[in-house]
Amino acid sequence: VQLVESGGGLVQPGGSLRLPCAASGFPFSYYYMFWIRQAPGKGLEWVSRVAPTGTAYYADSVKGRLSSSRDNTKNTLYLQMNNLKTEDTAVYYCASGGPPEYLPRGQGTNVTVSS
């Protein structure tokens, strides 16, 4: 299993980012996929769960601002992040395993929201 996130960076409050996660080594189109994040000094926080059909579920803290999708033809998961807030600053991971450990997961991509 290989999961590779990208697209992170520094963005101002109110800005947007799109994070792709490229997956390989397993039958991606059959798997629920997860976005999780870890803010500095805090534990893992679940962000979103995406069914094989593309139906997505979100944590209350990100509803209406973050949107997950997937392209099963490209084995890629996406996280569209809009109206970012400083509290969204974290390392973002995609994972093919569910709670509590969300393993396996990628190496993560850093998102910093700051003016």
Terminal CA distance reads 37 Å
By secondary-structure content and strand pairing, the structural class works out as mainly beta
Biggest beta sheet attributes: 6 strands, mixed
E-strand count: 10
Helix content: under 10%
Order of helices and strands: EEEEEEEEEE
Structure characterization notes:
The chain is mostly beta strands and 115 residues long. The chain is 0% helix and 47% strand. The protein is built from no helices and 10 strands. It has a 6-stranded mixed beta sheet with strand order 2-10-9-4-5-6, with no helix packed on it. The radius of gyration is 13 Å and the shape is globular. The termini are far apart. The model has no long low-confidence stretch (mean pLDDT 97).
Brief account:
With 115 residues, this protein is mainly β. 0% of the residues lie in helices and 47% in strands.
Question: What tags apply to this protein structure?
Answer:
single chain; 115 residues; mainly beta; six-stranded mixed sheet; four-stranded antiparallel sheet; 10 strands; 47% strand
Write the layout of secondary structure elements.
Elements: E1 2-5, E2 9-11, E3 17-24, E4 33-38, E5 44-50, E6 56-58, E7 66-71, E8 76-81, E9 90-95, E10 109-113
Parallel strand pairs: 2-10
Antiparallel strand pairs: 1-3, 3-8, 4-5, 4-9, 5-6, 7-8, 9-10
